[in-house]
Amino acid sequence: MGSCCSSSRTNKKTDDDENGESNNGHMGVDYFQRDEIDVSKYVCQELSNVTVVKEAGELNGQAFHIESCDNCIIYLLDHTAAVTIDLCNDCQIFVGPCKGSVFVRESKRCHIMASCQQFRARDTVQSTFQLHCTTQPVIENCSSIKFCCFSGFYPQLKDHLTVAGLSPLNNNWYSVHDFTPQSGNWVTLKREENLPSFGSDQVSSTSFQSNCSSRVVPRTLGIKFQDEYTKTSVVVFLEDSEHTRALKFIENVKEKLSLLITKDTKMKTNGLQQFFLNNAAAPPDLRDGMQIEYLLLAGDQCIQICSQALQEDPMNTTLNSYCSPNESQAWTDYQKLSHLIDSGIMNS
After folding, report:
1. Among 88-97, 110-119, 127-136, 186-195, whose mean pLDDT is lowest?
2. Where is the C-CAP/cofactor C-like domain positioned along the sequence (predicted)?
């Protein structure tokens, strides 16, 4: 058995190294931020049948490397710069907010729950990835992979998301890009209840929960499942800098409606004007660089439920929020918002 304090990585070269890319997935960036740090604190290597917990404050934005571990449970309950997971089998790994990339390589039968800016997996099989990923997850030469929405919680998660620069409302876990596409490579799951249990009783003192009812990162189903619903609504929040109104709204309607998509961005004036063109419900004060959060929800009586939830919260007014007035407009609203954001017209 090895140690979670192994002194160095293996010297194995990868294709990324040959191309001039460091192992944390960032071009030209040293794997660790400072030469004087004790690298052994940021490595788990050659471990078997153990549980490792890195508590808040232990990693403090450094990169972390996990390699050649078998049947281990590993918790990184802190924010990091980048995380690599190589040659691991039958492991459960939780990765708290990662400012850069989480990169999984040559691993088997692992269950990984991660919050990150970028997620990549290569040469990995029979594994489950529960993600909060602000960009499109990428896989290559992978098979029998399951994707599901991130569901983890620990007390410092909200603060660590802020430090890592990750919005809880930007989650593209379902929008997978496969460089080697073929049938059977991956599937998306609607609900994490279909997954095996995650974690260990040994970390009960940390208050980590793998399926918390009140989430920092909302559970979304993804646009793939929109076809199952005929009744949808778009709800928009303006200038909700700490996501307070949006998250409270989601909490209030979650038992009645399904949340398909959430987005958080900033808008140029022309993007705002195009979205609200000829819309009588448009907020009157539209300014360049305004923050916008939009939610796509679905379910019976969706418009009525959303409208009522907005009206019942005094923080929401016609000046800072919007709800599609009818079902026909709701899908038009979603298509317009998606087009504007994808084309860059909205982003300031």
Report:
1. 186-195
2. 28-181
Q: How far is CA 27 from the centre of its chain?
A: 22
- Within the chain, all domains assigned CATH 3.30.70.141 are found at 223-342
**Amino acid letter, 59:** L
Domain with CATH 2.160.20.70 in the chain: 15-206
Q: What is the dihedral of CA 228, 234, 239, 244, to 10 degrees?
A: -50
CATH, range 15-206: 2.160.20.70
User: What's this model's pTM, rounded to 2 decimal places?
Assistant: 0.85
Residue 87 structure tokens: 């040659």
In the chain, the amino acid numbered 75 is Y
DSSP 8-state symbol, 48: B
Report whether 303 contacts 268 (CB < 8 A).
Answer: no
Residue 282 CA to residue 146 CA, distance in Å, equals 40
Task: Round to whole Å and give the CA distance between 70 and 87.
Answer: 9
Annotated binding site for GTP: 100-101, 117-120
Detail the residues annotated as belonging to a binding site: 100-101, 117-120
The correct CATH number of 223-342 out of 3.60.21.10, 3.40.50.1110, 3.40.640.10, 3.30.70.141 is 3.30.70.141
Residues of 149-185 as b/e, b for ≥16 C-beta within 10 angstroms? bbbbbbebbbebbeebebbbbbbbbbbbebeeeeeeb
Bridge-based pairing of strands 43-45 and 64-67 is parallel
Q: Which of 301, 298, 271 is nearest to 287 (CA)?
A: 271
How many whole angstroms separate alpha carbon 274 and alpha carbon 251? 30
By three-state DSSP, how is residue 7 classified? Answer: coil
Q: Tell me: the pLDDT tens digits for 121-146?
A: 999 999 999 999 999 999 999 999 99
